[in-house]
Amino acid sequence: MKKKSPDEKLSSLRKLSTDVTFRLQKRVDTSDILFVASGAFNGLDKIVARRLDKKSLGFGTSSGELHVSSDDANSEQARKRDYLLSKADQGDLINFGIVPELVGRFPVLVPFHSFDQDLLVRVLTEPQNSLLTQLKLQFAIDNVDLTFSSEALQQVAQLALERKTGARALRSILEGVLLDAKFTVPGSDIESIHVTREAVLGEAEVEYTRRVVENKQAVSAM
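Structure tokens predicted for ATP-dependent Clp protease ATP-binding subunit ClpX domain protein (222 residues):
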């Protein structure tokens, strides 16, 4: 039997690999499939700003009016960024670095608004499985009622804005505020926990309410 050369062995392996790949391939009709892509696209607002400035001036210079400055307040900076992203088009995405063949498959661009303090409070409280609901259920296992003052919720939202990580910061902030309580509550006589603004800022501890145990003395008639 003739021994195969290394080139012949490699050719046989390639043919086998091609046959296996062909058998595993399946055709998919994408006519009724909705493709959605999302991302942060950091820096896209600056690309849009340069395009809009050039169009308004007619020169290669920039007016700077549409640029987001790091000296702006958070709310003003977010407002400018939201405005610029609302003007983004496919050309801006290509300049951002996405290949044109991919950009062409997403004809509709939908920018999301930046979070403000009120929106973050709504994220904390309104969803059916909100973060506050989850935390309350955790303490309810030990028959402890967890409450927050409105000022505390506003402060949590403000701290999350300062971290600039969106709604993800809410969990880490609340976990830090309630960390000691999670170790204190189990097996204790604590009945309820109230979180104040000062507790969120670390200036005070959360407020505990403890159960009142009445000592019943049996009175015996002599």
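The first strand starts at residue 145 and ends at 148.
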